[in-house]
Amino acid sequence: MEWLGLQFVYELPESGQVILDCTHNPLLVLVAYLVACAASFATLDMAERVAHADDPSSQRLWRWIGATCLAGGIWAMHFIGMAGISYDLQAPQDSHPAYQKLAAVDAHIRQHYAQPIAVKHLASIAGLSIAQLERLCKRIFQLTPRQMIHQARLGAASQLLAGELPITEIALRCGYTDHSAFSRQFKQLTGFTPRQYRQATSDQVA
User: What gap in Å lies between CA 75 and CA 132, rounded to an integer?
Assistant: First the structure.
């Protein structure tokens, strides 16, 4: 989910974990801190006004103003904080000199995901060593070659699960000879087993 240029939700890699190489803007972090201080001060000031107000309607008004100041400060602090500390997940660096070589690797994976794919063969397509391929894939796609294979296979599986093919057949068509490995990796990516995913998507259609 993306809003105002910020990516809030992104699919997880094969491991189900993301290690962020974050950068931060010190000025925006400082602004978030100052907003939090200002909101806290305004809220305390409203609380003092409530204590000195005799009219119940005035007390209620100052409470609402204080709550609004506090809520606005918290929201602004978090939003500015997210803008100040950011990481662009899975954005391919198409300006990288090796991008075209890796684009060929990605195209091969998407065309042949149903077949066994050796990382050594992918390296030969790119004209790189296996170590170079691993390093450049992580740098450009934020995925290892093996994770790229799983992503292509599981993406195809999620589409096939919308149909009526048996799950074991879907696993075979997507390059998985081990049904338990397919189920395990599918759940790591989506949070659902293939059967649960099929049920959820069929409920949405219904």
Answer: 44
Give the other-Cβ count within 10 Å of 92's Cβ: 14
Among 85-99, 119-133, 175-189, the range scoring the smallest mean pLDDT is: 85-99
Contact 65, 46 (CB under 8 A): yes
For residue 73, what pLDDT is reported?
Answer: 75
Tens-place pLDDT, residues 58-68: 888 888 887 88
For 194, the 3-state DSSP assignment is helix
Q: Which residues pair with 24 in a beta bridge?
A: 85
CATH number reported for the structural domain that contains residue 162 in this entry: 1.10.10.60
Contact 156, 167 (CB under 8 A): no
pLDDT per residue over 22-70, tens digit each? 455 667 667 777 877 887 888 888 888 888 877 888 888 888 887 887 7
Mean pLDDT of 183-188: 88
Answer whether residue 126 shows pLDDT above 80: yes
Q: Whole domain around residue 175: which residue ranges?
A: 99-205
Q: Which helix (H) or strand (E) holds 30?
A: helix 26-52
What is the Cα–Cα distance from 163 to 57, expressed in whole angstroms? 61
Whether residue 139 is contained in a domain is answered as yes
Query: How many structural domains is the chain composed of?
Result: 2
One domain for residues 71 and 113 = no
Contact 32, 81 (CB under 8 A): yes
